[in-house]
Amino acid sequence: MTLPQLDYLIIAAHPDDAEIGSGGAILSLKAHGAAVGVLDLTNGEPTPHGSPEIRERETNAATKVLGLDWRGNLGLPNRALVADLDARKQIAGMIRQLRPRVLITHYWEDAHPDHVAASALVDASRFWAKLSKTDMPGVPHYPTKILYFPSMHLPQHLKPSFVLDITAFHGTKLDALRCYHSQFIAGRSTEPPTLFDDVTTRARYFGWTIGTSYGEPFLCREEVGLRDLQHLS
Ligand SMILES: [Zn+2]
């Protein structure tokens, strides 16, 4: 099977992480014509109100809302994701086939061990993806940047490398999150603050820091360059 060539690839531990951390960025990239994909590393199950079948249906619905060009799942073990050589090789093989210019993944510090492992795996897989003389599929490829989104499980105030204006996309991001009924709605109190209130409050705060209504924060270990100064907010 030939995979599409992507401009941006989000690699996340569980289906729904990409939506929460970078749903606004995905929608913004799609609105600007970029080819965007998501690679989920596990199926995210078991959870209290989900099942593999329910989670897959919800993921497909969210994928449609986001307008993704491609989405895949590596089927690595949920709750037991480990940054080992086999997982690194599988992810690097996907990067070599999809050839994204930029990778987006979890911030490296989090309370959820799967998120920490995913972040470390993306760092290592990016490097492995460029190796020659290997039996990995695809061609040697080195994404120019890795961007990291903060996750939900470790409340901390991070200093982002930049904040993306997602004002035009925040409502649709929430629509994508609502697709994950088993994760964000079932069994949860409807009393405020709901998860959607939390997501919106954080987006409003980061939007405030750049003078817009809603924003998504990203971190990068490398310097982030600008092509021009006309679009600073
Ligand atoms: Zn997760």
Q: Could you please describe the fold and organization of this structure?
A:
This protein is of the alpha/beta class. The protein has a single domain, classed as LmbE-like (Rossmann fold). The chain contains 7 helices and 7 strands. It has helices spanning 17-31, 52-66, 85-98, 113-128, 170-178, 181-184, 195-209; strands at residues 8-12, 36-40, 70-73, 102-106, 145-149, 162-165, 215-218. The strands form 2 sheets. It has a 5-stranded parallel beta sheet, sandwiched between helices. A two-stranded antiparallel ribbon has the order 6-7. Helix 1 links the parallel strand 1 (8-12) and strand 2 (36-40). Helix 1 packs across helix 5 (170-178), helix 2 (52-66) packs antiparallel against helix 5 (170-178) and helix 3 packs across helix 4 (113-128). The radius of gyration is 17 Å and the shape is globular. The mean pLDDT is 97. Zinc ion is lined by residues 13-14, 17, 112, 115.
Question: What's the CATH H-level superfamily name?
Answer: LmbE-like
Bound chemical compounds: zinc ion
How many E strands?
A: 7
Number of domains: 1
Order of strands, widest sheet: 3-2-1-4-5
Question: Which features characterize this protein?
Answer:
233 residues; two-stranded antiparallel ribbon; 7 helices; Rossmann fold; 5-stranded parallel beta sheet; 7 strands; alpha/beta; binds zinc ion
